[in-house]
Write a structure and sequence with these properties.
mainly alpha; about 400 residues
Length: about 400
């Protein structure tokens, strides 16, 4: 029976890893559909290359920093317990690799390829694991201090803060260091619209992410005996709330509507194992409205050219999710309890601080040494031709 249990756990977490791996296709198509056609190939290549670099960085450095586990032993030792530790690494890698995938959407259309791959290695190898170890592996005694101070540890079941807020706030620093796309904002104060190149591809990316998210959340139990249907239903309710709120606040705009369920799912990750479904519905609805209003504000008033809105979608909705777990996870509001708003606030703020500090150091140094942006001519021609020497629709660009 013990062997069967172990094998079931391996299969369970492997299926979760595969579902989240598929989410990276969602990141790719969401970005592909949002950017202009001359940058579509680059969107696809970036996500795949970032995942490969993330795998190496996390395998050789990041996983050891976060969990103190390394794989420099014989295959016989690695295969122990049906290789559960290896599959667990695969599962957590797909979380880690979401950091550069999130950043990619913010810096689209004007970032150089090589420096961004270096940033990916540093983010996944050092910055993300530092906070991951604090939140999920008791590193540096932070969780113990929170428990002694507030009576509860910081709770983030599936990564509202650990993954999404960290990725979104790193993305904001990268966007600010890069600056806006050329022609996006003029000196006279006018704004040049850069509409999505393909709403169908944007929608496809959103749907792939939405479906995979049920692996992201439910499989965060990591063993089959800890699986909870509450997590699945709370994810469903948050997705629904985010969709309807974005539909109303975005006035039927398809870009907002398809990002609405993602905003809700980002926010519910932290407390999905604690909340009542109605609490999850409110959490998702607030996140959907938050994304619409903050995306509009950052793009039009603050003139921050965050192409996919990764800061409002992941950074702010992820931070809201960390706080919401401390609100709707309490027994007073129908949750299971065991959380404290003070611990959630401190844990969330710490995640943001690590992300901003890490992002500023990495992108600041890269900007001063290698440079972050394509040249004006390369940006005008598009990242596809400038970096990859081929466009998404080459028959339109090459005379025959």
């Amino acid at each position: 029976m013990e062997t069967l249990k172990t094998s079931s756990d391996v299969l369970f977490i492997l299926l979760g890893a595969i579902m989240i791996l598929a989410m990276h296709a969602g990141f790719a198509f969401l970005e592909l559909g949002t950017v202009r056609k001359k940058n579509q190939v680059n969107a696809l290549v970036k996500i795949l290359a970032d995942f490969a670099v993330s795998t190496l960085a996390y395998f050789f450095v990041g996983y050891t920093i976060a969990y103190g586990v390394q794989f420099f032993t014989g295959a016989e030792a690695l295969a122990a317990k049906s290789g559960y530790e290896l599959v667990k690494f695969f599962f957590l890698l797909t979380f880690a690799a979401a950091i550069p995938a999130i950043v990619s959407g913010g810096i689209a259309e004007r970032a150089r390829f090589g420096p961004q791959l270096i940033a990916t290695a540093l983010l996944v190898g050092f910055v993300y694991p530092l906070y991951e170890g604090i939140a999920w592996n008791q590193a540096f005694g932070v969780q113990g201090w929170l428990k002694s101070t507030f009576g509860a540890e910081f709770h983030d079941f599936a990564g509202s803060v650990v993954v999404h807020a960290v990725g979104g706030w790193v993305g904001l620093t990268a966007v600010l260091f890069l600056g806006a796309r050329r022609g996006r904002y003029t000196r006279e104060g006018t704004i040049s619209a850069h509409p999505p190149s393909s709403i169908p591809f944007l929608a496809l990316g959103a749907w792939v992410l939405t479906v995979g998210w049920f692996g992201f959340n439910v499989m965060s139990a990591q063993t089959i005996d800890k699986i909870s249907g509450l997590v699945a239903i709370n994810s469903l309710m948050a997705m629904t709330g985010g969709t309807l709120a974005a539909l109303a606040a975005g006035r039927n705009d398809p870009g907002f509507i398809h990002n609405g369920p993602l905003a809700g799912l980002v926010a519910v990750c932290a407390g999905s194992d604690l909340m009542h479904p109605i609490g999850a519905l409110f959490t998702g609805a607030f996140a959907g409205a938050l994304f619409v209003y903050l995306f509009t504000l950052t793009q039009n008033r603050w003139k921050i050219d965050d192409v996919l809105g990764v800061w409002p979608l992941h950074g702010l909705c992820g931070a809201w999710g960390g706080l919401a777990a401390g609100i709707f996870g309490t027994k007073a509001l129908g949750g299971l309890g065991g959380v404290h708003f003070g611990a959630q606030f401190v844990g969330t703020a710490l995640g943001i601080a690590v992300a901003v500090a890490g992002g500023c150091i990495i992108y600041g140094v890269l900007k001063r040494t290698l440079g972050l942006r394509l040249s004006p001519e390369e940006e005008f021609n598009g990242a596809d031709l400038s970096i990859h020497k081929i466009g998404a629709t080459p028959e339109r660009e090459v005379p025959w």
